[in-house]
Design brief:
The complex is a heterotrimer of chains A (173), B (426) and C (347). Chain B is of the alpha/beta class and 426 residues long. Helices cover 21% and strands 33% of the residues of chain B. In chain B, the strands form 7 sheets. Chain B has a 6-stranded mixed sheet with strand order 17-19-14-20-21-22, sandwiched between helices. Chain B has a 4-stranded mixed sheet with strand order 8-9-1-13. In chain B, strands 5-12-10-7 form a 4-stranded mixed sheet. In chain B, helix 8 links the parallel strand 20 and strand 21. Chain C folds into 2 domains: 167 residues, Rossmann fold (3-Layer(aba) Sandwich), CATH 3.40.50.2300; 123 residues, no CATH class. The longest helix of chain C has 18 residues. Chain C starts with a strand and ends with a strand. The chains are: A mainly alpha (173), B alpha/beta (426), C alpha/beta (347). At the A-B interface, helix 4 and helix 5 of A face helix 7 of B.
C-alpha cells in the first residue's frame, strides 16, 4: 500500500512541480484519506537504509544482499575502516554505531564494522568528535607494534566477534 | 527492602568423599561436581581442580568467577531468571560461602581472556588470588558453536556455585550483616537532612562474550531502570562478559558490588542510599543517547543530590560514561565516576576515549597498559599456549621458562571499574 | 657523596626584595638561605657545593645570557644533582627555577628538581619537562617543601625508580603511574562524593584534559555605530610605566586615558612586556595597541567611536587565575561604560 501511494503522490508532485504536501487521495474503489506526506520530494532519512563500512568478509557475506543495508567493503585494515568512516562523516554522513565497539583493542583485532546513515546532511559534530577520538585511540594502541601470529582459527574468532557485535546492534532496530 | 547476609568463612577447600562445609573448610566431592556439569550434553568432558591462596598455580584463560550463595529465607532464589525463577529477590536471608569461589575456564575463542595467579606478582593484582577456588575446565563437544559454548559454560558456573551454596543452607553463619533500603517515602521521613545518593551501574551489553543479564534479561534489550541494592546481592545481575580481563565485571564482582557495600556503610549516617539505577552500554549511538537520557531522568525523578557512576569495559563505554556524567551534572546532581585507563605502556597517552570538563571527580582503577612480569608457576590450570594471544600479551610474552611478560590487561579484575581494588594511578 | 648545586633568587639569599631583583647571577660557596634546611635533610648523603643567586628580573629579562652564564657556573662544580627554589607562588622566580632546571637537565644531563605552588605559571610551563614538587603558596611552607624535595632529590640522584605523583609529591606530569592506595576505589569514590556534596575540596584521581573553550558572543549588529574599547596583554603603558606593571607575572593591570590621543608615539608610550623584543613596540606602540588605525576608522565612520580608556597588562608568565581576575574587574567597567565590543591584542 505504502509503495503505490508513494508513486502516485510522486507523480502528482512532479506534475505540479510542487514541494508541498498532498492532503487527500481518493482511490477508485476505496476511499482512503492519506494525511500529509509532507515534503515528499525532499530527501528524508528512511529508516533501515543505513550503510555498513567493514573490512570483515563475514559481515560482507551476510549483509551484501540485504535490502535494508548498503555495504561498503574495504580491502584493508581496521584503520582503513576508521579513515573511510571519517571521510564519510566529513561528507555529512552520521555515525550510527560507536567505532570502538567491543572491548577488543585496536591492536588486537584486525576487523572492524561501523554503521553510518544512508543519507548525508550538514556535518554532524558529535560524529566527528567520536571518529577522531577513535582514530586517536587506534594510534595510541598501535604505537607499540604487537607482533601477533594469528592462526586461521583465531582470525575467524575475531571475525565472529565483530559480526556478532554488529548483529546485536542491527537486531535491535 | 531488607536483606540479611550470613557469612560462613571458608579458609580452605579440599576434595573429599562427601561435600560439606565444616570448621571453615569446604569439602567437595569431585565426581559429584563432574556429574553435574556433564548433565549438559554440550560438554565432552570436564576437569575439576583446586586453587588455593599461596599455591604456585596459574589459572588461564578465566571466563567467570562466581561466589556460592543460597537463599535461606525470603522470596526467590539465587540468580533469578537465570537459574532460579524470576521472582524478585533481595529480601529475607541469604548465606554466603565467603572466601570460596567457582572459576570457569574454556577456550571459547582463540584470543583468550584472563589470568589468575595464586601467588607472586600477579596475585597482587587480582582479588581472586585470596579465595579458595574450585576451577572447572570444560571441554565442549566437537563443532559446538561459540555462542552455545559460552552459554553452556556460563550456566555450568552458576549451577556449581548454587550446588556449593546449598551446603551452607543449614549452617550458622560466623557473622551477619543487615542491609536495608527504605522506600522513597520512608527514606524522606527517616533521613530528611541527608543528601540523597544513588549508584548508576553501567552494564556491558554488546554481543557475544560482551553481555550482562538482569533477572535473565539481556541488558542490551533493557531500558535504563532501577533496582534495590540488595537484589544484586542475591545475583540479580550476572556476567556474560569475557572481554577484557582487567576491566570486565565477573559475576563475583556483581554479587559483591563494592560501591553498594561502601554506600551502605554511610547510609543513614552521611547520606541516604536511595537505590541503584542500572543502564547499559550498547554500540548503537542512539541507544547510548537514550540510555543516558534515562539515567539523568531517573536521577532527577528520584530527587537525588549525588551519584556514583561505574562503567565496564574499554573504548565505547567511555562515551556512555561521559554522557551519563554530563547529563546528570546538567540536572544539578553531583557525580563521581569510576573508570580505568589505557595510558599506553609509558603512561603518557590519553587515558580515556572520551572526556568532558564536567567529569571533575574521577576515581581510577589504574593504567591497564602497564607491563608486568609474572613468574613461572608450578601448575597451570587451563591452557598456557594462549598467553601470546591474550589481550595485552604479545609475541614472545610466554617465555620458555613459563614466565609471562604482558600488560596488566591480562589479569582478571586487575583494573576493575567498580572500585573493587586498591590499585590507582596519578 | 652526591654533589649538589642549588639555585635561589635574591630574596631567599637575603640580598633584598623586589628592589634587588635586577642583580645578575653570582656564585656562593657557603650555604645560603634554604640551603641550610636542605643540607640538614640530606645529612651526609649529599653536599651542597655551590649556590647560584640570581635576581628574578635579571633572569627573565636576559634569558639567553642568564642561562648561558649560569650553566657555565654550574659546570665548574661538576654536580650530580641540581635543585632550584622552592619558588612557592612567586611567578617570576618559579619560571626562572623551572627554566634553568630544564636547561641543566638538557645540557648537562644530570637529574634536576624544583618546587613551587601548583598555580605558579612556571608549573604549567614546565611540569611535563622536569619534576616539580608541589609546595604551599608561600614561604611559610618551606619546611614542608624541603621535606618533600630532599628525599625525591636523593632518589633522582641515585637513579632509583620514581613512583606516582601522589606518592612522591610532585605535580602530575602527564605520565600515569600505577600504585596501591590504602583504600579500595569504591570507598575512595564514596569519600570523594561526600566531599563534593559538602562543597569541600577534593582531588580528582584523573584530571580531564583541559579544553578551556570560550563560547563566542554574537556578532556586532552594526559596527559603524559600535563603541569599541581596546584591551591588551601586550604591556603597552604610558612612557615611564607609571604604575610599574611587571615585565612578567604581572600582578596588576593599568587603565589609561587616550581621550584626544590620535596616535601613540615613542615619546609618550612604551611596552612593559618582558617576553618579546621591545624595540619595535617602543618605537611605535600602535603596533601592539592600534590606536591610530581606530582613530582613522572613527573619523571615516567605519566604527562608532573608540572608548577613551584602554586596559593593559603584561601577559608574559602571568597566572591564568590572575588574568581572569583582572578581566572580571575591568569588564564590569566596560559594561557600565556601554562598550559594544572589545578588540583584544596580545603578542
Amino acid at each position: 500500500m505504502k509503495e503505490s501511494l508513494r508513486s502516485i503522490t510522486e507523480q502528482k508532485a512532479f506534475a505540479f512541480c510542487s514541494f508541498f504536501s498532498l492532503n487527500l487521495i481518493f482511490l477508485l474503489n476505496l476511499s482512503i484519506i492519506v494525511i500529509c506526506y509532507k515534503n515528499l520530494l525532499k530527501k528524508s532519512k528512511r529508516k533501515g537504509f543505513d550503510m555498513i563500512i567493514t573490512n570483515n568478509d563475514w559481515v560482507y557475506e551476510k549483509y551484501k544482499n540485504c535490502s535494508n543495508h548498503n555495504m561498503f567493503f574495504i580491502e584493508g585494515s581496521y584503520k582503513d575502516v576508521l579513515i573511510k568512516t571519517r571521510d564519510k562523516i566529513h561528507e555529512g554522513y552520521e555515525l550510527l554505531t560507536h567505532p570502538l565497539s567491543s572491548s577488543l583493542k585496536p591492536n588486537e583485532t584486525p576487523f572492524k564494522s561501523i554503521i553510518i546513515s544512508e543519507n548525508k546532511d550538514k556535518l554532524n559534530m558529535d560524529s566527528l568528535i567520536i571518529i577522531e577520538n577513535s582514530i586517536m585511540s587506534w594510534e595510541k594502541f598501535n604505537n607499540e607494534k604487537l607482533k601477533l601470529n594469528f592462526t586461521k582459527q583465531i582470525i575467524e574468532d575475531f571475525k565472529l566477534i565483530d559480526l556478532t557485535v554488529l548483529e546485536s546492534a542491527l537486531n535491535k532496530k | 527492602m531488607k536483606l540479611e547476609l550470613g557469612y560462613i568463612y571458608i579458609k580452605d577447600i579440599q576434595f573429599a568423599e562427601k561435600s560439606k562445609v565444616e570448621n571453615g573448610t569446604l569439602y567437595v566431592n569431585k565426581e559429584e561436581i563432574k556429574a553435574l556439569v556433564m548433565e549438559d550434553q554440550n560438554f565432552k568432558s570436564v576437569e575439576v581442580e583446586l586453587a588455593k591462596p599461596g599455591d604456585s598455580t596459574r589459572i588461564m584463560p578465566v571466563k567467570d568467577v562466581i561466589e556460592p550463595r543460597v537463599k535461606v529465607e525470603g522470596p526467590g532464589g539465587i540468580f533469578p531468571g537465570m537459574v532460579s525463577k524470576v521472582q524478585t529477590v533481595g529480601s529475607g536471608k541469604t548465606h554466603v560461602l565467603k572466601g570460596a569461589a567457582v572459576i570457569t575456564t574454556g577456550k571459547i575463542v582463540g584470543f583468550q581472556e584472563g589470568i589468575i595467579d595464586m601467588t607472586g606478582t600477579g596475585a597482587e593484582y587480582t582479588p581472586f588470588s585470596k579465595l579458595n577456588n574450585l576451577v572447572l575446565v570444560c571441554q565442549p563437544v566437537e563443532g559446538l558453536k561459540q555462542h552455545e559454548h559460552e552459554k553452556a559454560l556460563r550456566f555450568a558456573g552458576y549451577k556449581i556455585a548454587i550446588h556449593l551454596g546449598e551446603l551452607a543452607r543449614t549452617l550458622v553463619p560466623d557473622e551477619s550483616e543487615v542491609f536495608e533500603t527504605p522506600t522513597v517515602k520512608e527514606g524522606f521521613k527517616l533521613y530528611p537532612e541527608l543528601p540523597r545518593v544513588a549508584y548508576v551501574l553501567m552494564l556491558q551489553s554488546q554481543g557475544l562474550m560482551h553481555d550482562t543479564y538482569v533477572y535473565g534479561v539481556d541488558a542490551k534489550q533493557s531500558l535504563t531502570t532501577m533496582l534495590y541494592p540488595t537484589e544484586i546481592m542475591d545475583g540479580a545481575i550476572v556476567s556474560g562478559n569475557c572481554v577484557s580481563a582487567c576491566d570486565k565485571n565477573t559475576t563475583y564482582h556483581h554479587i559483591n558490588n563494592p560501591v553498594i557495600h561502601d554506600l551502605f556503610s554511610e547510609h543513614g549516617k552521611t547520606l541516604n542510599f536511595v537505590g541503584v539505577i542500572i543502564t547499559n552500554e550498547n554500540v548503537y549511538l542512539a541507544d547510548k543517547e537514550r540510555s543516558s537520557d534515562w539515567s539523568a531522568k531517573l536521577a532527577e525523578f528520584l530527587g537525588l543530590d549525588g551519584v556514583i557512576i561505574s562503567q565496564e569495559g574499554f573504548g565505547n563505554p567511555d562515551t556512555d560514561l561521559i554522557m551519563n556524567c554530563k547529563k546528570i551534572e546538567a540536572k544539578g546532581i553531583k557525580t563521581v565516576i569510576i573508570t580505568d585507563e589505557y595510558a599506553g605502556r609509558d603512561g603518557s597517552s590519553q587515558s580515556l576515549a572520551d572526556a568532558d570538563v564536567s567529569a571533575n571527580a574521577v576515581v581510577t582503577g589504574g593504567n591497564a597498559n602497564e607491563v608486568i612480569n609474572l613468574p613461572a608457576l608450578e601448575k597451570v590450570i587451563g591452557y598456557t599456549s594462549v598467553a601470546d594471544i591474550i589481550a595485552g600479551g604479545f609475541s614472545g610474552s610466554l617465555h620458555e621458562d613459563g614466565s609471562i611478560t604482558a600488560e596488566l590487561q591480562v589479569i582478571t579484575g586487575a583494573t576493575n571499574e567498580m572500585g573493587f581494588n586498591k590499585l590507582s594511578a596519578r | 657523596m652526591i654533589k649538589v648545586v642549588q639555585y635561589i633568587n635574591q630574596f631567599f639569599a637575603n640580598v633584598g626584595g623586589e628592589e634587588m631583583a635586577h642583580i645578575p647571577a653570582e656564585v656562593r660557596t657557603e650555604i645560603v638561605g634554604p640551603g641550610l634546611a636542605f643540607q640538614q635533610a640530606f645529612k651526609d648523603e649529599a653536599k651542597i657545593v655551590a649556590t647560584i643567586v640570581c635576581g628574578d628580573s635579571y633572569f627573565n629579562e636576559n634569558l639567553e645570557e642568564a642561562k648561558k652564564t649560569i650553566l657555565e657556573m654550574i659546570k665548574e662544580y661538576n654536580p650530580d644533582l641540581f635543585i632550584a627554589g622552592p619558588a612557592f607562588n612567586a611567578g617570576r622566580y618559579g619560571v626562572a627555577c623551572a627554566t634553568i632546571a630544564a636547561e641543566v637537565k638538557e645540557q648537562l644531563n644530570i637529574p634536576v628538581l624544583t618546587g613551587m605552588y601548583k598555580e605558579n605559571p612556571g608549573a604549567d610551563m614546565f611540569k611535563n619537562k622536569v619534576y616539580i614538587v608541589s609546595t604551599k603558596n608561600s614561604a611559610v611552607g618551606m619546611k614542608d617543601a624541603v621535606k618533600k624535595m630532599a628525599p625525591l632529590a636523593l632518589k633522582l640522584a641515585k637513579g632509583e625508580k620514581i613512583l606516582s605523583s601522589a606518592e612522591e609529591g610532585y605535580l602530575p606530569n602527564g605520565i600515569r603511574v600505577n600504585f596501591f592506595e590504602k583504600e579500595r576505589g569504591s570507598k575512595r569514590a564514596v569519600n570523594m562524593l561526600l566531599s563534593k556534596l559538602q562543597d569541600k575540596e577534593f582531588e580528582t584521581e584523573f584530571p580531564m584534559p583541559d579544553f578551556d573553550r570560550v563560547e563566542p558572543n554574537k556578532a556586532v549588529k552594526d559596527i559603524t555605530k559600535a563603541k569599541i574599547a581596546l584591551v591588551t596583554s601586550g604591556g603597552i603603558v604610558p612612557k615611564g610605566n607609571p604604575d610599574h606593571i611587571e615585565s612578567s607575572s604581572a600582578s596588576k593591570f593599568g587603565k589609561y586615558d587616550i581621550d584626544g590621543v590620535m596616535d601613540l608615539t615613542e615619546e609618550t608610550y612604551e611596552t612593559a612586556h618582558g617576553g618579546y623584543d621591545p624595540v619595535y613596540a617602543n618605537l611605535d606602540a600602535d603596533r601592539v595597541l592600534p590606536v591610530d588605525i581606530l582613530r582613522e576608522f572613527e573619523q571615516q565612520g567605519k566604527i562608532g567611536s573608540l572608548h577613551r580608556y584602554f586596559y593593559t597588562t603584561v601577559g608574559n608568565g602571568t597566572a591564568v587565575k590572575s588574568s581572569k581576575a583582572f578581566a572580571a574587574e575591568f569588564s564590569k567597567e566596560l559594561k557600565q561604560d556601554g562598550i559594544d565590543a572589545v578588540i583584544l591584542t596580545s603578542t
